[in-house]
């Protein structure tokens, strides 16, 4: 597989993490360099690990995961997005604080990288070595997450807390997109 193809796949896989990073920063939840690093690092790490897991498990186990992956990603993103929408109307809750900590970070990292599991499976079926593509996917996701966070910080000054509602709606739509793409493909 050519490096150009790997980069294009990585860009496609990174879009969900990009959108979540942009939303989190615009809503004003990433206020220090450590939070930015944690979010970008974990998004990149999960995007690196999921293709590796898919590649190692191969067709035997992944076919069961692929049967429900879209439902799982949908549920997780709607859950997080729903909390953000609720918080936009009713103020700060413990769930809408810094998304770069705790279970919220794990949920977001997993939900935005679950499609990379299928990519790993595909690369395994095609007998393509996984380490280089997984590394490129992880690095590109991490870089795009930082770019999205920086862009979101600029938008935050302009739109402020209104972006909490927009961000929640965006996460719900990302979950819906994942669900519909898997159901109708």
Give a brief description:
By secondary structure, the protein is mainly alpha-helical. Helix content is 85%, strand content 0%.
Number of strand segments: 0
**Beginning-to-end CA distance, first to last residue:** 24 Å
When the domains are counted, the total is 1
Order of helices and strands: HHHHH
Unreliable spans: none
3D architecture notes:
85% of the residues lie in helices and 0% in strands. It has 185 residues and is mainly α. It has one domain. The protein is globular, with a radius of gyration of 16 Å. 45% of the residues are buried. The model has no long low-confidence stretch (mean pLDDT 83).
What labels describe this entry?
185 residues, mainly alpha, 5 helices
Give the topology, please.
Blueprint: H1 3-26, H2 33-90, H3 102-125, H4 131-159, H5 162-183
Helix pairs in contact: 1-2, 1-3, 1-4, 1-5, 2-3, 2-4, 2-5
């Amino acid at each position: 597989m050519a490096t150009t193809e790997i980069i294009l796949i990585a860009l496609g896989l990174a879009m969900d993490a990009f959108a979540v990073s942009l939303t989190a920063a615009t809503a004003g939840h990433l206020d220090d360099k450590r939070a930015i690093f944690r979010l970008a690092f974990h998004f990149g790490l999960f995007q690196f690990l999921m293709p590796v897991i898919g590649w190692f498990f191969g067709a035997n186990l992944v076919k069961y995961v692929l049967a429900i992956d879209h439902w799982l990603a949908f549920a997780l993103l709607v859950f997080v997005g729903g909390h953000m929408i609720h918080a936009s109307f009713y103020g700060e809750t413990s769930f809408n604080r810094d998304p770069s900590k705790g279970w919220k970070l794990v949920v977001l990292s997993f939900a935005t990288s679950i499609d990379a599991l299928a990519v790993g499976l595909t690369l395994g079926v095609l007998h393509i070595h996984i380490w280089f593509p997984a590394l490129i996917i992880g690095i590109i996701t991490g870089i795009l997450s930082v770019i999205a966070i920086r862009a979101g910080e600029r938008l935050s000054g302009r739109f402020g807390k209104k972006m909490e509602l927009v961000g929640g709606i965006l996460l719900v739509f990302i979950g819906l997109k994942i669900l519909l793409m898997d159901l109708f493909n």
